Amino acid sequence: MATQRKIAGVRGMNDLLPADAALVEWFEARVADWVRSYGYRQIRTPIVEYTELFVRGIGEVTDIVEKEMYSFEDRLNGERLTMRPEFTAGTVRAAVEHNLVYDGPKRVWSIGPVFRHERPQRGRYRQFDQVNVEALGFAGPDIDAEHIVMLARLWKTLGIGPVRLEINCLGQAEERARHRVDLIAHFERHADRLDDDARRRLHSNPLRILDTKNPALAEVVAAAPRITDYLGAASLAHFEGLQRLVGAAGIAYSVNPRLVRGLDYYNLTVFEWITDALGAQGTICGGGRYDPLIERVGGKPTPACGYAIGVARVLELLGAAADLEIGSGTDIYVVHQGGATAEPAFLLAESIRDRGLDVVCHAGDASLKSQMKRADASGAEYAVIVGESEVAAGAAAIKALRGSDATAAYAEQRIVPLAQVPDALVDAMTVTESE
Ligand code: ATP
Ligand code: MG
User: Fold this and answer.
1) pLDDT in the model for residue 323
2) pLDDT by residue (tens digit) across 153-174?
3) What's the pLDDT score for residue 327?
4) Of ligand 1's atoms, which has the minimum distance to the CA of residue 130?
5) List of the chain residues with pLDDT < 50
6) Protein residue with least CA distance to atom 24, ligand 1
7) How many CB atoms are located within 10 Å of the residue 374 CB?
8) 261: CA distance to ligand 2 center in Å?
9) Which protein residues touch ligand 1 with a CB less than 6 Å away?
10) Which atom of ligand 1 lies at the shortest distance from residue 285's CA?
11) Which end of the chain is less congested by CB atoms within 10 angstroms, N or C?
12) Distances (CA, A) of 18 to 94, 172, 302, 402
């Protein structure tokens, strides 16, 4: 048969390989502890939703809906579907569908992949994971502040830094409408300096021009009218309340009046956490308040806010922090000589696992010497050798693979009766761990 052409993975969609899994698992475990410590409970929604949910929930004139969504028609029934480009719309859809906030507000979180058709580059992929946190039914600003302090705690727990916090207040629809009139007038005066995207958005969504990534527009954007100058008393009180709590918690921040965020449905609070250590893709988390959204997808008016963390960008920062101690190895590696030794080795591995230790049992044929090499490479603390002579004597040999006083007893291999091997290993591991 002719050699088949290799099939590559889809551009911008990455594999997590076993060698990198320990870091990801470590991160996910920290995240699970951290959200629990603030009373958030997990919600898992499908990866695919009706396209209309995202169009209504994110907004028609946004990068995501205009050009980044993986949408398709289900050929079997003609339904128009989209792979989620973010979590909020699906979370809110589920909350409305299951009436989640009927008995009070809810704190929920999710982790998983989202999909956006962007130009792949460092920190920007077409499938990427987000940690998503939402507080549904809370009017704030205390909950907005909770989101900011919990993120500050996460960065500290993970040992990444410095990450700077930018915040802004987008006010309410009426305030943005007045701002919008002046914003359009400003950009019209400088129409010759706008790019195609900005010109197109000038009348559909001029606020989004402030979010441009085109450096050529920086000057016109910097001179634009600021939303914060259009805020009424209630919005200002919300913004000040947030700043008071965040300041009292000792968290540094700066107000960026041009921070508008990519999605259409935000009001009042928006924020981003940014690092300089990742080049152009430096925003590791963005979020804010979206009080109008739940009504927009068919629910009762319900205030809410939330944020999403870009996992790949955080992992890249973590990877740079070299002093992380992340165990990736097993505890025990069982080697054997095949034939009559395979079955006792197989069963011995099970009885060691019964005692709560992690065990890799050699599978297949290989010389004892090459198995010992694999045992060493596995990161195991001890090798258990089930050879022909040991089995004939109803025993196995234990050998320490890492040098230290605690393992000295097994530095030379020691013969232990089969039935006593699990206990002996548990004792040896306990001493090793308490060093
Ligand atoms: P950007 O301005 O970088 O395009 P965004 O405003 O589109 O970001 P959000 O929708 O706020 O991003 O998503 C939250 C976080 O997800 C971002 O802060 C970022 O860390 C991460 N993120 C966004 N897009 C990508 C991507 N294509 N690849 C990897 N991570 C991403
Ligand atoms: Mg984007």
Assistant:
1) 59
2) 999 999 998 999 999 999 998 9
3) 67
4) 16
5) none
6) 124
7) 15
8) 9
9) 86, 116, 118, 123-125, 128, 130, 262, 281, 283-286, 308, 310, 312-313
10) 18
11) N
12) 33, 47, 43, 23
Beta-carbon count within 10 A of 328 CB: 14
What pLDDT is stored for residue 260 in this prediction? 87
- Is residue 113 reached through a cis peptide bond, with omega within 30 degrees of 0 on the bond before it? no
Note the pLDDT of residue 262.
66
Taking the centre of ligand 1 as the mean of its atom positions, its distance from the CA of residue 310, in whole angstroms, is 6
Q: In this structure, what are the phi and psi dihedrals at residue 328, rounded to the nearest 5 degrees?
A: -125, -5
Atom number of ligand 1 nearest to Cα 263: 10
Q: What is the pLDDT of residue 88?
A: 96
Task: Name the residue with the closest Cα to ligand 1, atom 14.
Answer: 308
Q: What is the pLDDT of residues 371-397, one digit of tens each?
A: 999 999 999 999 999 999 999 999 999
Residue 10, Cβ neighbours under 10 Å: how many? 9
Ligand number nearest to the C-alpha of 310: 1
| Residue 430: partners with Cβ closer than 8 Å, 6 or more residues away | none
Predicted pLDDT of residue 306: 97
Pocket test for ligand 1, best of 63, 115, 154, 283 (most atoms within 8 A of CB): 283
Residue 120 identity (one-letter amino acid): P
The pLDDT value recorded for residue 320 is: 65
Q: How far is the CA of 286 from the centre of ligand 1 (A)?
A: 8
CA separation for the pair 198, 194 (Å, rounded):
6
In this predicted structure, what is the pLDDT of residue 324?
Answer: 63
